[in-house]
Structures are given as structure tokens and as C-alpha cells.
Amino acid sequence: MLAFNQRFKQAISERRDRDLLRNVVPIKGRNDRLFSHSQHCYLNFSSNDYLGLATDKTLMKEWQKGIDLYGNGSGASPLVTGFSQAHQELEQSLCEWLGFERALFFSSGFAANQAVLFTLLAENDLLVQDKLNHASLIEAGLLSPAQMKRFKHNDLSHLKTLLDRECMVVTEGVFSMDGDLSPLTEIKSLMAHQGLLVVDDAHGIGVLGEEGRGSCNYAGVQPDILIVTFGKALGVSGAAILCNQLIGEYLTQFAKHYVYSTALPPAQAFAICRSIDMVREQSWRREKLAELSYLYQVKLSDFCESINTLTPIKPLIVGETGRALHIAEQMKKQGFWLTAIRPPTVAKGSARLRVTLTATHTKDQITALTKTLKSVLKDSK
Ligand SMILES: Cc1ncc(COP(=O)(O)O)c(C=O)c1O
């Protein structure tokens, strides 16, 4: 057997032995609050579609309208002929909404994060990241030419000890697996304009702040660079880096993920523009989320596994991988889809169910979820 194949086989079987193997699950039809898989119907508490826009009919029609106007694909990278009027309108809309001079688009948040770190950092630079930052940021930091230091999650005292020279500080606005917020105001004031503050707000945009402007607006902080993704609360896909003219121009010239990649389909840019309008205008979606979030937390207040958050991400930290898998399986048997999150996505011993609420859930569904969770949690002790 080729040494390559030997290595691949071994890594997969080690994962399987430690209950860490992941599977792709084909969902039938739309990824709605109710979906069907393998002849069964499940209530979905495992999507990032916080505002319920991924299957919103009005938004679907807008995307179809975008296809009528612009066709299917962009046909080229943005610096060739892939940048259209729809992209220009999206840039204007985002900059006006979030208060930046430039926005550059990427096919995913993963690519946008990598573009920021790979392009802006050089040898001898210092990069400081929260330990729980997303894999795209940590990996890019490790591979970048800069020196990377990581501070303990949200630990300002630790961060302070690392800020001894000009640097780039990178944090998520809302942490994806914990649902907690970064102390952005304090980080900004610790930095005292001695570097660039970069915030990945994949899970805050649309959900927090005035008109859904995200965790920076919620904290009253304007970072130097903001990354927003369109595949979570905005219900579509893709991402943007928001920044000033200088950084925007530098990225346009040198960011390989931007220059050498096919631009987002213009119809998608058109749909994202409409999604932003809906996010801004339809505050009832955020109000509904807040109501459901409160109900969920009250119902599970007696359970130490349940962590209260200000966001729709509600981790239930159960510790061992086997217990997390068992709970997810039991919940599935009763019609609730909750994905078990295991190492290496989270630290060893902190396996969890990542419960996510969306504006399309009903109070009755939250009540049913918490009732079943309580009994499954008790039985799994
Ligand atoms: C914090 C964070 N940043 C970036 C990403 C990547 O975004 P995308 O799914 O658009 O690649 C994710 C997605 O899981 C995320 O949770």
C-alpha cells in the first residue's frame, strides 16, 4: 500500500476508535426548522440560520430575480470581469450599514479570514489571537510569516502581557462554539491604537446591535478590519472583509484569495443586498430570538450543563465525547436534531451539544425541546 494511503487509513481509524469520526448527512429538501433525513422528520436545532432567512420565500424570489438580471455565475475573478454592478451595490450597502470605506467579497468566511492574515502580515510582525478563534484564523496564523501568540479565551490580563509592541489582535465577536461575546471595548482600549484590531463577526452580524450591525456595534467599537459572513444570519453564503481605503487597496492588489478566485455570482450579491435590507428592517426577527432565548434559558436553569448566552448559540457542555454522542442520538430518536461537537473542534473534555435557536422556531417547539433535553440529560448521568 502507498505510504500516503497507509497514513490516511490510520488517521481515520484512530478517529473512529476515539468516537471522533464525523459524517456528512444528506438532508432532503430545504434546511428548514423541520427537515427530513432517511425517512424521518426532525426539528432542527443545529443550523446557523439564526434569522430564518435561508429558506425565506421573499429572499428566494429576490435571488431568482438576481438570476434573471445577471445570469448564473460571475464568469471571472473580480479583477478580470467578475465584478458587476450587483457587487458594487452590495459594497455600498455594506459600507453604509457598517460604517467602513471598503468591502471586498470572498466565496467563504474561511477564505476571507485566511486572506486577511496571509496578506497583511509579514515577517517580524506580531499576531495575537484569542485561543478559541475559528480554525481558519488559527491555521492562517500558524502558516503566516508573523510570530503568533495566543491569549487565554477572553482573558484581558493575559492579553495585556502580550501587547508589548505594535501588533494585530484578532478575535471573534461571538464565539462560534460557546456563544459568548468578546470583551471588545476592553480589548480596544488595551490596544490604545497600537496596532490593528480585527474582528470576525460571523455569528454576531445580523443578530446583535442596532439594525443587526453585529457585536462591534453592540460593544460600541469600530475595529480596523471586520469580517462578516453571509451564510449564517444573512441566510445566503460568502463573506466580506470591511476596512478603510488603504487596506482595501492593499488587499485588492495582493490578497491571493481575492485576486485568483472566481467572484461571487452577481445574482448572489444581489440576494445578499436584499437580505441586508431585511435584516435591518425586520427587527421582529431579533426580538423573537430574544424571546425564545429567554424561554430556553428559564426552562433549563436547573441544569449546570446549560450555559446562558446573549446569542442564539446555547452550548450544553457535557464533557465526554461518548456522552455527547449518546445525548445527540437519544434526542434524534425523539425527533430533535442536535449535533454533538467534539474535539478537535472544542477542547478535550468539553464535548457539547451546540443548540442553536432561530427566529422560525416557536415557543412550543422550545418547550418541547427543553422537556426532552431534561429527561435525556438526567438519564445520561
Ligand atoms: C467564527 C467563524 N468564522 C468564519 C467561519 C467560516 O465562514 P464560512 O462558513 O462562510 O466559510 C465560520 C464558520 O463556521 C465561523 O464560525
UniProtKB/TrEMBL annotation:
Keyword set, alphabetical order: Acyltransferase, Biotin biosynthesis, Pyridoxal phosphate, Transferase
GO molecular function: 8-amino-7-oxononanoate synthase activity; pyridoxal phosphate binding
Keyword Disulfide bond: no
Entry cofactors: pyridoxal 5'-phosphate
Stretches assigned to coiled coil: none
Keyword Acyltransferase on entry: yes
In-chain residues carrying the UniProt-annotated modification N6-(pyridoxal phosphate)lysine: K232
Catalytic reaction annotation: 6-carboxyhexanoyl-[ACP] + L-alanine + H(+) = (8S)-8-amino-7-oxononanoate + holo-[ACP] + CO2
One GO term of the biological process aspect: biotin biosynthetic process
Binding partners and assembly: Homodimer.
The family this protein is said to belong to: Belongs to the class-II pyridoxal-phosphate-dependent aminotransferase family. BioF subfamily.
Name of this protein: 8-amino-7-ketopelargonate synthase
Species: Vibrio caribbeanicus ATCC BAA-2122
Record lineage: Bacteria, Pseudomonadati, Pseudomonadota, Gammaproteobacteria, Vibrionales
